[in-house]
Structures are given as structure tokens and as C-alpha cells.
Amino acid sequence: MNRTTVSLIAVATALAAVTGFAALTAPGEPAAATAAAPQAARLPVERTSLLCPAPSGSEIAETLITSYTPPGTAAPAAGAGTAPKPTAVLGVAKNPNAAGKKGKAPKAPASVTTPGKPVSADADGAVTHGLTGTATGTLAPGWTVQQTTLVTAGAARGLLGLNCAAPDTDFWFPAASTAKGRADYIHLTNPDDTLAVADIELYGPEGELKTTIPEGVQVPPHATVPVLLGPLLTEGAMENLTAHVTTRSGRVGAALGSAADGVGSDWLAASADPAARVVLPGIPADATGVRLVAFAPGESDADLKIQLVTANGTIVPAAAESVHVKAGMTASVELPDLTRGSAAALLLTPTDPKKQIPVVAALRVVRGKGSDQEMAFVSGAAPVTARATVADNRAKGTALALTAPEAAAQVKVTASAGTEGGSPATRTVSLKAGTTTVLTDLAPKGVKGSYAVTVEPVAGGGPVYAARTLTVTEDGIPMFTVQTLVDDRGTVQVPTARQDLTVLDD
After folding, report:
1. So what's the pLDDT on residue 156?
2. CA 462 from chain center: how many Å?
């Protein structure tokens, strides 16, 4: 008789957002007869995927791509001498629409080799391909890639910034538009070896709009496809839209690039999942125009109270006290002179606490006046529950906004070493309930090159929302971009496997 022993020694759990996975190796002890349920453990992810859209089609674009993994979360050991070498590698996602046109592939930064040390690469000129990458082992937990592009002239003028995102199957983009003078593209990037098919639904003030792509958009393997929204509509131009991207098959990364005559261009990142309470952090103190766009994806209307979370407390802005969002329809409201010289976050909550209707929302923010205006977007954010990082911060022009809308909190803020040298610095910041705190002195002494900023809430406080604003002034124009910080999901909860299975073969 042959005896074959099969031990259940690992459990692999995929994250819902497909950020990565973790493997748990059970202790080498025999299974014990016990009625106790296995306890869950929180372990570092061992693999993380990120996708970046094509940066720009402009010949004068200057793009910097920065890759970084924060220290402090070690992947589980696989046994002496058996753990594979950690990697963090970005490769080209080809654009099939760019065949025969001007444009090149981006230059990906060298692989991160050590947590805590960012690396970057320039990708100047017309770069029409995106990036797709994977980090493994100790480089996977919290891996972050930032794409920043400066275009100093032309219709696409502006500072465009984007945190490259994990692949997923569902994305919301309030504040999209097909208005005259505006060009909005949704960039779809497929990280996998098989074809992905994505649907793009557009919703205006009267509900869902007919589009010219009922069969969906095909995204080839390891490719990126930009889709211009204007030609999709059969009902004419719309000033304020909500775009919804879902996949019929496969998964994609999705981001919306927008350019508007006279006010520049930027990326609109996907909003946080629909929720009854929405926080939009990082509105600059000198904003000269703010437009709120909201959408209720369910079957019930939402009545939302508008509040502004400032350095001195939470107030109701004079521009508008509330907004009514009809089910399945896009609502918008102009909020002139919103900040009045104080950086802030916008807080949306149900006017009736008993009616918790999920919504998504985003802001279009303008700085400057006349011909010296520049726009950026702020997407509805989720709180930072464990840790979040934003890369490519500069010694000048970087501001971190931290908002505690409900209760007092503390956060640990770490500025990393620079891409060209320097040492990291960490501080603990106390946040009062119902306030926004802005930090502008983030760069460590002696730092060279760009650096990363990591935010970690201290246990016991209220929820914290964060956003980074990067500003570069060109010819008197305050070009800027705002990135909300997304929890890096560096760890995942995995049940402990304790069972031994023995199979007897005759």
C-alpha cells in the first residue's frame, strides 16, 4: 500500500479590489482535535498590481514616473533560502490606437530594490503608451506609483497628476463632461493575458444617455485604450456627466483625462465606492471656483447637506447649504468663493439621518483668474484605515491636507528619503474633530530629488481623509494637481488553516 499525505498548509485570499494576495503558511504542528474555529490573521500582501494610463500626446510634455514602497511591513517568510527575490517592475502597456502616429512608450523607472527608497524616470515628449506592473515579496505591501506630467502650453496645458491604480471591475467618474471646448478621455488598461471588455455608461441631469458602444470596448491583453467621451453620445454635448465603467470580462485600470480650453488639464481619478457620507479633501485655500458634481446610483433620491471642514471647524458655506440628487441622474452646484482663504474639505451627509442613500461625488476646482486659470479635480475619498502613500513630492509646492470630520485623531506622517539622496523624517500630527490641517513643511532636511509621503492613523482616533496638492507656477499660472490618498491595502485578513488531509492510495 502506498501512502500519500496531502497537507493543507496555505490559504490564498484575493483582495476585492485585486490589489494583491497573501499566502499564509501554517505552523508545522500536527492537527489537533478541537472545536475552536480557526482565527483570522492579518498578513502582508505578497503581490500587488498597478496600472498607469498613457501620460500625454503633447510633444512638449515633461513626465516623471516615480515608484516607491514604504518600509515597515515585511512579507511572511517562506523558509530559509526558499523565498523568491522581491521585485517591483513596470512594463509597457501598448496602445493599439497609436499605430502609425507620433508617440512613444514611457521610460519606466528602475525597479524599487529596497522599501523606503523611491526611484523615478523621465518620460518626456508625446508618450502614448501606458504602464502595467507588479510588485512581489517585501516590495508589494504599499507599493505606489505616481505619474506627474507638466505641459506648459497648448490645449493640454497644465500639471497632470495621478496615482496609478489597481485593476478592478467597477469605476465611477462624476464631473466628466462632453461640453464644447472640453475633451475627456477614459483610459482603460488591461494587465492580463486575455481580452477585457468594458462598458462605459454616461448619466446626465435627466438620467442615462444613449451611447454608440452598446457592445462595449475591447481592451487587448497588456494594452491601454483611450476612449473619447464626446463621440459616444447621440444626444449632443453635456456640461456635467457621471461616467460609470464596468467590465463584462476581465479587469482593467481606469482613469479619466480631461482638458478644457482656458483652464488647463488634469486627471480625474475614480471616486470611492458609493456611500451615504462623502468627504472630498484637499480644496486649496486660494480656489477661485469649485463645482460639485454628484450622482445617486440607486433607486432613491438623495438629499445632501453641504458642509465645509476648515482649519477652524466645520461650517455651512454661504454658496449652498444642500443639494438634491435624483436617482440615476447627475446633479451639480457651483460653489463660488467657497474656501475664503482657508484650505478645506467638502463634507456631504444626508439631510435626514434616517435616509442613508449612497452617492458618488467629485469636485472641479479652479485656481487663478482670467487667462491665468488652471483646473484640477478632487474625487470623493475613502478614509485612510491603515496606511496610504503618495509619491513625487517636491521641496517646494507640496501641501498635505488632513481632515478629521467626525472625531479627533492622530496620524504619523513620514517623508521618505529622496530619489537622489537624503534621510527620512517622521512626525505625529494631532487633528481636532471637525477640522482640516494642512502641512507644507514636509521635505526632510537634506532631501534631494522627489520624495514620498506616507500617512498612518494612530489607533483610537476618528476617521482621517487625506489629499496631496502639488503646485508648479509657470508664467504666472498656478498649475496644480490634487491626489486623494487611497489606503494601500498592504495587509489582508487571512483565516488560519490548521487541517491535515491524509489520502490513502492502494
Report:
1. 80
2. 22
Cα separation, 435 vs 308, whole angstroms: 9
Rounded distance, CA 452 to CA 415, Å? 6
Kindly write down the DSSP assignment for every residue of 294-305, as one continuous string: EEB-SSS-EEEE
> HEC string of 54-113?
CCECCCCCEEEEEEECCCCCCCCCCCCCCCCCCCEEEEEEECHHHCCCCCECCCCCCCCC
CA distances from 279 to 150, 315, 317, 380, 430 (A): 28, 14, 15, 6, 19
What is this structure's pTM?
Answer: 0.89
Q: Bridge partners of 442?
A: none
C-alpha cell of residue 197: 471588455
> How does pLDDT run across 238-273, given as a tens digit for each residue?
999 999 999 999 999 999 999 999 999 999 999 999
Is the distance from CB of 73 to CB of 22 less than 8 angstroms?
Answer: no
**% the chain with pLDDT above 70:** 87
Q: Report, as an integer, the average pLDDT of 180-207.
A: 97
**pLDDT tens per residue across span 33-85:** 444 555 667 889 999 999 999 999 999 999 999 999 999 866 555 544 566 88
Phi-psi region of 409 (alpha: psi -120 to 50; beta: other; left: phi over 0): beta
What residues contact residue 10 under an 8 Å CB cut-off, 6+ apart? Answer: 23, 24, 25, 26, 497
13 or 91: which carries more pLDDT confidence?
A: 91
Q: How far apart are CA 342 and CA 78, in angstroms?
A: 50
Integer Cα distance of 308 and 319 in angstroms: 11
**224/103 Cα distance (integer angstroms):** 14
